[in-house]
Amino acid sequence: MKQVAERYYFLSIGIFLSFLLVWEITARGIALAFILPSPTEVIIRLWELREPLLLTHLPATLSIILVGLIISVLLGTGLASWMSWNTTAEKAFYPLLIASQTIPVIALAPIFVLWFGYSIWSKVAVAVLITFFPITVNTFDGLRSTSRELKELMRTMGASRKDIFLKLSLPSALPSFFSGLKVAVTLSVIGAAIGEWLGAQEGLGYFSRRMMTQFDGAGVFAPIVLLSLVGVLLFIGVVVLEKWILKWRSYT
């Protein structure tokens, strides 16, 4: 099984390298770097801009992502627990939760800038709006899918509703929670970038937008590469945390 997994990893790397090769050939054939820079030009520009990107703009974006994720986890798990505990809360808030995802985030981002100005909170609000939904819904589905037979068994053993929730429902919902969190961490990068694009004074999204006004194609792509790396590393971090916490769950 391990050899099969390694083979798939090599296949993924091969596809990615083939994509970069096609991109490099196409970009050099077009020869319009301000529209489509080649991967080598992006890497060179990334190295040239390493100081402002890594020392100023990357920390600003990371702070938005982390604060947004913390707020989303606290609010999402809290609301999911409340809805699973209280049927009235489920009927009242679940439709609102679904409706919140029908509103284009790109339309709300300027409103957040009006409310919070160019501070970190306007960008955090965008990140929370995007990441709150998958965490809440996945956690709620995990809580609701707790085995009924195990619940009945615990009741016959004298367990209270609180005991069932804390000792059965919450542990059973952890895999679903981490599934939602893995989606949320990648979306948080998008939310931070959108917020910075529409109103910020620093950050990778802001820097990319500034390079666009200067017709610097490689400069536009350089912070995007960093954003992609941040998303991948956050995803890997959640996977590692999930495997560490859910040691009882078998992984293949």
Task: Summarize the structure in words.
The structure is a single chain. By secondary structure, the chain is an all-alpha fold. The chain has one domain: Orthogonal Bundle (MetI-like fold). Helix content is 84%, strand content 0%. It contains 10 helices and no strands. The chain has helices at 2-30, 39-48, 50-85, 87-100, 105-116, 120-144, 148-156, 161-198, 204-213, 217-245. Helix 8 (161-198) runs antiparallel to helix 10 (217-245). The longest helix is centred in the last third of the chain and has 38 residues, at 161-198. The protein is globular.
List keywords for this structure.
252 residues; mainly alpha; MetI-like fold; 0% strand
Q: In summary, what is this structure?
A:
By secondary structure, the chain is mainly α.
Tell me the name of the CATH class. Mainly Alpha
Distance between the termini: 8 Å
Output mean pLDDT.
86
Q: Which percent range describes the beta-strand content?
A: under 5%
Question: SSE layout and pairings?
Answer:
Blueprint: H1 2-30, H2 39-48, H3 50-85, H4 87-100, H5 105-116, H6 120-144, H7 148-156, H8 161-198, H9 204-213, H10 217-245
Helix pairs in contact: 2-10, 3-4, 3-6, 3-8, 3-9, 5-6, 5-8, 6-8, 8-9, 8-10, 9-10
